[in-house]
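User: I'm curious whether this sequence folds into something compact or stays loose and floppy. Could you predict its structure so I can see for myself?
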Amino acid sequence: MIDFASQVFTNLFVSDFKKIDRNSRKNWNILHIGDTHIQDWNSVKTLLDHEDIHERPKNMDELYRYLGFLHVDIVNINDFENWCVSDKKYDFIFNCHSSDAFLDQIKFHEALYNLSKDQSKILHVVPYYSPFEMGFYSFNPVFFARMSEHFNYAITQCHIGSQSSTILQKIEIVNEISRERYSQRHFLDNKTTVDKGYNGPVFISVVFEKGRLDV
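Assistant: Here's the prediction. I'll summarize afterward.
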């Protein structure tokens, strides 16, 4: 798992999951799609310190369990097409820079929607721009705005960073309210730039929350 993904996961856990007590975590279902190797130990150490955990996990599977999540499924993107017909529902799904290697994007995102519970969170970390040999796709922030609109997700976080970035650039998001509901979600402002002189591939992270339209 690239450094950027480790930082994003840590930020999400500290900001959102920290308040979930360990007894509740035991009942959560977690789906992790993609790489489980941990590269950025500084970010993970921050997370472990928050949880007062003194052991060093070997990979993401162990990290989830150290954090109190007992029901964790790790899926390789090459096996996802068979997995996505499962009737199991998940409280948290982590697309760990994997969907860029899945040809049918609509099928992938429909599968995540069907696999997720109401009020669940879906974390995407995928290339914003990258070398041609890295997957099939690079993802514009507008893609995720459209996905949130299509599936009625709220977008609660969005960041840009390089593969080994130590600083995350936040992209602000606004919801435009219509008479009946939040009908459009888009990224602002026009002055925001992702051209920060990053070296190598640049990644985008987006957190969807299902069934929440007040963000």
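Summary: The chain has one domain: 3-210. Residues 174-193 have pLDDT under 50 and may be disordered.
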